[in-house]
Amino acid sequence: MNNLFKALNDSTRREILEILKDKDLTAGEIADQFNISKPSISHHLDLLRQAGLVVSVKDGQYIYYSLNTTVMDEMLKWIISLQSHKNKS
Amino acid sequence: MNNLFKALNDSTRREILEILKDKDLTAGEIADQFNISKPSISHHLDLLRQAGLVVSVKDGQYIYYSLNTTVMDEMLKWIISLQSHKNKS
DNA sequence: AAAGTATTTAGATATTTGTCTAAATATATA
DNA sequence: TATATATTTAGACAAATATCTAAATACTTT
């Protein structure tokens, strides 16, 4: 879960996930939505990929990124397990 | 949500939350469970408190920490909203 | 009041992180 | 094949972070 929490601990990366919610996009299309250089966005995409939160597929000179939410299942379970905690004594 | 993801992006802090799941504990009792200095644990507790994930109550010379999971509601909603994304076209 | 215990604050340091520009790689097109 | 486009890799740098030791604060006990 380390990589996952690390990937989510950045507002730019969280925004990337949000825009991928609607539609798969190329790296360039993603970068166009931020005031950050393309190499920086590329680096963010790499961290998201390492966490498994996005999947990349090459199509010609483009690379399409898409959201993968299944990796969050374990994290969700962890959070929910915390929520069922003891009551005040 | 920034403070929340930041607080969760550290395995020591996540472990602290796990041990507080069972029982409220003093700062010292928490520190005893880690091979990390007390000041460092104190700092971790401060970050958890800033995120609202723990609440501290002073009792004499002790400070009791307890888990507060309600602050994760917004985060959970955000994660779940990501999960209902478009299907592959 | 003095000494002991619990915890935090202050300040230092090494590591990690987010960002940039410049260069490299890969594909497409004229 | 030469040029343009899309993306990443490399290397640098400033800011943030996790940790430490030493000192300060606050409470308790003798």
Provide a quick synopsis of the model.
Chains A, B: Pfam families: HTH_5 (PF01022). Chains A, B: One of its GO terms (molecular function) is DNA binding. 2 copies of one chain form a homodimer. Chain A is α+β, with helices and mostly antiparallel strands and 89 residues long.
Q: Biggest sheet of chain A, in brief?
A: 3 strands, antiparallel
Instruction: Specify the structural class of chain A.
Output: alpha+beta
N- to C-terminal separation of chain A? 31 Å
CATH architecture of chain A: Orthogonal Bundle
| Strand runs of chain A, count | 3
What are the low-pLDDT stretches of chain A, counting only 5+ consecutive residues below 50?
none
- What's the overall geometry of chain A? elongated
The SSE string of chain A, one letter per element, is HHEHHEEH
3D architecture notes:
The structure is a homodimer. Chain A has helices spanning about 1-10, 10-20, 25-30, 40-50, 70-85, and strands at about 25, 55-60, 60-65. The first copy, chain A, has one domain (about 1-85): Winged helix-like DNA-binding domain superfamily/Winged helix DNA-binding domain (Arc Repressor Mutant, subunit A), CATH 1.10.10. Chain A is elongated. Helices cover about 55% and strands about 15% of the residues of chain A. Chain A is built from 5 helices and 3 strands. In chain A, helix 1 packs antiparallel against helix 4 (about 40-50). Chain A is α+β, with helices and mostly antiparallel strands. The interface of A and B includes residues 6, 20 and 78 of A. The structure holds a DNA duplex (30 and 30 nucleotides). Chains A, B: One of its GO terms (molecular function) is DNA binding. Chains A, B: It comes from Mucilaginibacter frigoritolerans. Chains A, B: Pfam families: HTH_5 (PF01022).
